[in-house]
Design brief:
Length: 617
């Protein structure tokens, strides 16, 4: 029978209910005063991405709630995306496009707080062309197969989705497959093979697994890229060497260094070129360790498996004073985590999977306890906002309510301050950075480009409402968006450009933000079907719509009484221009020849708007 946690309102299983009953849920003032260490938001949090070049890890989920680890591995040859566990609401911080790109899910075990978010993943991936692969402990295939039966699959006939499920035994790997075409009813064995730790092995990376004891098997993982050689392209430019087939020969170590290649008519030895151009790409390692009981017998194997990690992500569930409960429930305490880290000696230790039985101050004390064994221990940078100024846990001197930024984000902020009149951000512009900039009145007429374009981040448009003096706005490569532009919030906005919005179907997000907007560009929005929402832009003078394959009608433009110039290009579904007939101020219409508007329609438009110049280009 399940109860509910009084603090979070979330269900907890009977075992959790039992262990919580042994802990006091009341904390008097005298207790709280001893649990208020301030975390330094610069030195107590680590942006995991800064520890790697090929790997880009992100810790998903909030402290005290379900967590997961999402890792993008870009080895130069290909890009892989891995998810370690899949707790409730963890994936909602990713865009649907990112969720669809996840190649493999590695489950530590199948307790609810590690699988509750799987349905969200399944919704986007059940019938995709590229198979899904799941790894987990024994019984993973049975449990996941049963989970798949909890959905009515009556509309999947003809789909070809496949999910491979591999169970990690002590020395074997057994794989099964289920298919979407039959509603995942049947499950077939693909086979079993001997396995000595490595469960996934590609030419450029590997994943090693270790089974630990959580009352049930719990799998720990190490993801490692493989050391390789790469060509220093900057050095090539410095030596004025033109790329060509010789580059492939350069990396072929079967060829003698005495052999020569011709570059631009000049003969050079491979040995000379290799010495000048080849650089070593070292191995990168990240470990994932959660939900286990410290076992002295297993510790040497654990240490040898995780030694050499650039980052070890490890649970920190119990405080030292609750060591008996930790052992009873097959978890570790803070000091035990410190002991493991002392033995493993990772370059950085990042703590996660905290218990919401503790307050923030107690979590800070747990970090201090872990540092007794390993000084380079941190919370993930994604959790900085939990200790933000408004909650009383920020470092001295931090502006009220403004999130702390990574070094990369601070660099962007510095560049913005140096050129704030017409600043353009060409690298990742995050929602956290948007929070900071939008709270700083220094930025007037700032132009924002590339809102976290590399990740197709879900952009919160409500944040942009804070830019009271914003004159021009440019948003590129937006995976998805939430919220809308508030009425009368962007009263100074005169120019708005939007490029490559992947999931946009109409313009309803514009709401009432058109008081001063005179120029609007919509470019490459593949799912845009309607201009509904544009009717608010009553002062718009110039409108450009390009590369919107699904746009079938533009009836909303009839409300744009101030429109003077209209540019339409590459709109293969648009055939009706009658909405323009009432726009008497329209002076110029440019229509690309690939937009299927007939000559008859153009003549009709010219008849209705005799003063308008119509160009087919």
């Amino acid at each position: 029978m399940q109860g509910f946690d009084n603090r979070s309102g979330r269900p907890m299983d009977a075992a959790r209910e039992c262990e919580d009953s042994k802990l006091s849920t009341t904390k008097g003032p005298e207790v709280l005063r001893t649990c208020e260490p301030r975390l330094n938001l610069d030195t107590d949090f680590l942006d995991l991405r800064t520890a790697f070049k090929a790997l880009e890890p992100r810790l998903l989920g909030s402290p005290g709630f379900d967590n997961a680890l999402y890792v993008t591995a870009n080895t130069g040859k290909t890009t892989h995306r891995f998810l370690f566990d899949c707790g409730a609401n963890c994936l909602t911080s990713l865009s649907p496009a990112e969720v669809q790109k996840i190649d493999v899910i590695f489950f530590s075990h199948l307790h609810f707080d590690h699988v509750a978010g799987f349905d969200y993943f399944l919704r986007f991936n059940f019938d995709r062309a590229k198979p899904v692969h799941i790894f987990g402990p024994p019984r993973t295939a049975e449990i996941m197969h049963n989970r798949l039966q909890g959905v009515m699959w009556d509309r999947v006939g003809g789909s070809d989705g496949k999910i491979f499920i591999s169970e990690i035994g002590d020395d074997s790997l057994s794989t099964f497959v289920v298919r979407s075409c039959d509603g995942f009813r049947s499950m077939e064995s693909v086979g079993s093979k001997k396995m000595e730790g490595v469960v996934l092995d590609t030419p450029d990376l590997s994943v090693r697994a270790l089974s630990l004891d959580h009352g049930t098997p719990s799998i720990a993982y190490v993801l490692a890229t493989k050391a390789a050689q790469s060509v220093d392209t900057d050095k090539m430019k410095e030596l004025n060497l033109t790329p060509g087939p010789w580059v492939r020969l350069l990396k072929d170590m079967a060829l003698s260094p005495d052999e020569s290649v011709e570059i631009g008519g000049v003969s050079r030895s491979l040995g000379e070129l290799r010495a000048a151009l080849l650089v070593e790409k070292p191995e990168e390692r990240i470990g994932y360790l959660t939900d286990f009981r410290l076992d002295d017998e297993k510790l040497p194997t654990l240490v040898s498996t995780f030694r050499g990690c650039d980052v070890l992500v490890c649970e920190n569930n119990y405080r030292d004073e609750h060591v008996d409960l930790a052992r009873k429930n097959f978890h570790v305490t803070s000091s035990q985590v410190g002991r493991i880290a002392q033995e493993v000696n990772p370059k950085n230790l990042v703590l996660f999977h905290l218990s919401d039985r503790y307050e923030k101050g107690e979590w800070a004390e747990q970090l201090s306890d872990v540092r007794g064994g390993h000084q380079k221990s941190y919370f993930p940078a994604e959790w900085r906002s939990t200790w933000s100024a408004e909650n009383g846990y920020s470092d001295v001197g931090q502006a009220q309510g403004v999130p702390m930024l990574s070094d990369r984000e601070r660099g962007i902020l510095t560049r913005l301050r140096e050129d704030k009149e017409d600043a353009i951000v060409e690298d990742q512009f995050t929602n956290a950075l948007l929070d900071t900039v939008s709270s700083d009145q220094m930025f007037f007429g700032i132009k924002i480009a590339d809102l976290d374009f590399m990740r197709e981040e879900r952009v919160d448009l409500e944040r942009i409402n804070r830019f009271q003096n914003l004159e021009s706005l440019c948003l590129l490569n937006v995976g998805s968006s939430v919220g809308s532009f508030g009425k009368d919030k962007l009263g100074s906005l005169q120019s708005f450009e939007m490029y490559d919005w992947k999931e946009l179907k109409d313009l309803s997000f514009l709401a009432g933000a058109g008081a001063a907007l005179t120029k609007y560009t919509v470019y490459s929005c593949p799912q845009l079907q309607s201009l509904e929402g544009m009717e608010h832009l009553t002062k718009l003078k110039e409108l450009s719509i390009h590369f919107c394959a699904e746009l079938k009608e533009i009836s909303a433009v009839r409300h744009l009484e101030s429109l003077e110039e209209l540019n339409l290009a590459l709109l293969p579904s648009l055939t009706d221009l009658s909405a323009l007939y009432s726009l008497k101020r329209l002076a110029l219409v440019r229509i690309s020849r690939d937009t299927p508007v007939s000559a008859k329609d153009l003549r009709a438009l010219k008849k209705e708007l005799p003063k308008c110049k119509i160009e087919a280009c």
